[in-house]
Write a structure and sequence with these properties.
Strand content: 15-25%
CATH superfamily of one domain: Alpha/Beta hydrolase fold, catalytic domain
Helix content: 25-40%
Structural class: alpha/beta
Oligomer: single chain
CATH architecture of one domain: 3-Layer(aba) Sandwich
Radius of gyration: 19 Å
Mean pLDDT: 94
CATH class of one domain: Alpha Beta
């Protein structure tokens, strides 16, 4: 892999590059960097020109300290493509990278030939993602990352830390010691420790979640545009949910699947799309399982149903691994991406 920098219209971006052929852009998740895609590059660079930028605020890309929106983050990728002379590309994205990639594909479909979304979402937040509420509850995230950024990385990537992370409301990142099967090497953990030690990365992480994902309650309303009405919740209102005296799960609004992109709910991406998901979906309320069908597309609640909503040409694959399966289970991830990019699934 080669490491490069490019000056886009308004941001100096670091990226990794390997291979030749049709371009594929890889967008990493949180709290990762372009390093996440090392296994995919080694498998795919023989057939494709692979590019993986560090997104705004992470890795070696600039950290300008501005509030972000999904529009800004997707525009960053468009600007990245323009700076490198890439007219259109397939896009592979994980976690927060998938949120960015969805916005890119739904607003600039002519720039995206194929879209692979790995353990991520489009515009609907599942109530089970309790960290989405915590990020809006200042000053808990600021204080937490300032004091525990190293232990946070250790916990996320190994399942344990010393000392242990604090409990709610200070932190939503409780993991029972030894409950995760460790896949990260010491080198992997050290890379992510160093990358997330920068206080400006903490600022941007909070900005992504706090301002880039404005929560709305969705109400059916036959008199409204597209039959839906949206009730915006301020950061203060979401913070009240997090600090509810009886716990977040007892707050009356908790049962809602919040939507952070109501302006996109009527849009569709017409090109081929792949949704890969890990074992977490078995814990996503209301979905039915069909392990015997490798192409099963989950459905049954607003989180699962968002993928069929936005992608008329959708296929799905389950990965028997945790959230970080591009790194934890690279073989099955690579085989699936090779098949998808090659048009065989």
């Amino acid at each position: 892999m080669q490491s490069h920098f490019v000056q886009t219209r308004d941001l100096r971006m670091h990226y990794l590059q390997q291979g030749a052929g049709d371009p594929v852009i890889f967008i990493h998740g949180f709290p990762e960097t372009s390093y996440e895609w090392r296994h995919q590059f080694s498998a795919l660079a023989g057939d494709y020109a692979c590019f993986a930028p560090d997104t705004r605020g992470f890795g070696q890309t600039e950290k300008p300290g501005l509030r972000v929106t999904r529009q800004i983050l997707a525009q960053d990728i468009v600007n990245f493509m323009d700076a490198l002379g890439i007219e259109k590309a397939a896009v592979v994205a994980h976690d927060w990278g998938g949120i960015i990639a969805f916005k890119l594909a739904i607003d600039w479909p002519e720039r995206v030939t194929r879209l692979a979304l790995l353990d991520t979402l489009c515009t609907v937040w599942s109530p089970g993602g309790v960290h989405g509420y915590w990020f809006k509850a200042a000053p808990y995230p600021e204080e937490f990352f300032a004091a525990h950024h190293r232990e946070f990385i250790d916990t996320i990537f190994t399942g344990d830390s010393d000392p242990q992370l604090p409990s709610r409301p200070q932190s939503p990142w409780q993991v029972r010691s030894g409950s995760l099967q460790r896949w990260a090497t010491d080198e992997d953990v050290e890379h992510y420790r160093k990358a997330f030690a920068d206080p400006m990365s903490h600022f941007h992480a909070i900005s992504y979640y706090r301002y880039g994902l404005p929560f709305h309650v969705v109400h059916d309303d036959s008199t409204a545009s597209h039959g839906e009405r949206f009730q915006f919740l301020s950061e203060a209102q979401v913070a009240e949910m997090w600090t509810h005296p009886e716990g977040l799960e007892q707050h009356p609004l908790y049962t809602n699947f919040m939507d952070y992109g109501p302006e996109d709910r009527h849009k569709r991406f017409p090109n081929p799309a792949l949704w890969m998901f890990g074992n977490y979906l078995s814990r996503n309320r209301g979905t039915s399982d069909s392990a015997s069908d490798p192409g099963w597309i989950p459905s049954g609640n607003p989180f699962a149903d968002q993928f069929s909503r936005y992608f008329p040409d959708l296929r799905a694959r389950r990965v028997d691994a945790g959230h970080f399966f591009p790194e934890e289970a690279p073989r099955v991830t690579n085989n699936t991406l090779e098949a998808f990019l090659g048009g065989s699934i």
